[in-house]
Write a structure and sequence with these properties.
single chain; 97 residues; alpha+beta; 45% helix
């Protein structure tokens, strides 16, 4: 046997590999963030970070990116020492030209 013949994969394995790919659309990090912020009650930074698996500074930076892309994020300051809650009130505004 030569090295060339060892490197070849059976064609059936190649076909199976393609068939295992998902047809579902890829959910982006931004889409996950927007969906979590769309909750009517809002969400605090710690809860948001935990659900996304991000550090808190990364979550805040992503929210700043949303603001820059046109989303309106409302901040509700809680009393009694509870954390502030954030929610998306409006999606990006299309600019007419």
């Amino acid at each position: 046997m030569t090295k060339k013949s060892l490197d070849r994969k059976p064609e059936a394995a190649k076909r199976n590999k393609k068939s295992r790919q998902s047809n579902r659309p890829k959910v982006t990090k931004k889409a996950k963030l927007v969906s979590l912020l769309s909750n009517n009650c809002g969400v605090d930074i710690a809860g948001l970070s935990k659900k996304l698996g991000w550090q808190t500074h990364s979550t805040r930076a992503a929210m700043t990116g949303l603001r820059k892309s046109g989303y309106v994020i409302e901040l509700t300051k809680s009393e009694d020492g509870k954390p502030s809650r954030y929610r998306v009130s409006h999606g990006p505004v299309e600019q007419g030209g």
